[in-house]
Amino acid sequence: MIHVLLPLLLLANGMAAGGLMIALLGGAPLQFVLPVDSYIVVQKFLTTRFDPFMPICLIITILMDGTLAATTQVSPYRWLAGLAGLLTACAISVSLTKNFPINKFVRKLDPENLPANWSEVDPRVRWRNWNAVRTTLTVTALLLNVIAVGTLI
Fold first, then answer.
1. 8 and 67 in contact (C-beta within 8 Å)?
2. What are 92-126's pLDDT values in tens digits?
3. Is 1 helix (H, G, I), strand (E, B) or coil?
4. 51 C-beta neighbours (distance < 10 Å), count
5. What is the pLDDT of residue 51?
6. Residue 73 per-residue DSSP state
7. How many CA within 13 A on the CB side of residue 65?
């Protein structure tokens, strides 16, 4: 069973970490150089692609880490997988409570009719900062999972 679950775990965790790194290194900086109306259009486009993809990868990571931590007898692996699963759960929590509400807010915006208080409600800095948090959590989980696999080899 472990020979099936480990590759699935590393694939899901790696794809989640990669997707978040793309957003951190590309998407977040891009949103600050685009005119506001273009930022809104691009953000709406990207979130409809990443929102269904990222939660699936993160949930698979948690399920695989939890299953492997609960069923593997190797002590270092159990702790590393358990911690990686916990970090991934924290990343999902940040996504659900911070980034997703911002994405939802932006999806409702009309780029041609911005709120009068745009400078006060502009979510780009908050989104970037919370994205950095969830990226750090997910990449750290991947690092722990890679180290954990090394303890089994």
1. no
2. 999 999 999 999 999 999 999 999 999 999 999 99
3. coil
4. 15
5. 82
6. -
7. 30
Q: 96 φ, ψ to 5°? A: -70, -35
- For residues 74 and 63, give the distance between their C-alpha atoms in angstroms, rounded to a whole number: 18
Distance in angstroms between the alpha carbons of the first and the last residue of the chain: 15
Which sign, positive or negative, has the C-alpha torsion 60, 66, 67, 73? positive
- Structure-block tokens of residue 27: 């998407």
Residues in the chain with pLDDT values less than 70 = none
What is the average pLDDT value for the chain, to the nearest integer?
95
Q: Are 62 and 85 in contact (CB under 8 A)?
A: yes
Q: What pTM was estimated for this model as a whole? A: 0.94
Residue with tokens 């890679």: 146
The phi, psi pair for 150, rounded to 5°, reads -60, -30
Task: Give just the sign of the alpha carbon dihedral 9, 3, 68, 63.
Answer: positive
Q: From the centroid of its chain, how far is CA 88?
A: 8
27 three-state secondary structure: helix
Retrieve residue 89's tokens: 């759960």
What is residue 34's DSSP assignment? S
Give the integer Cα–Cα distance in Å for 15 and 29: 21
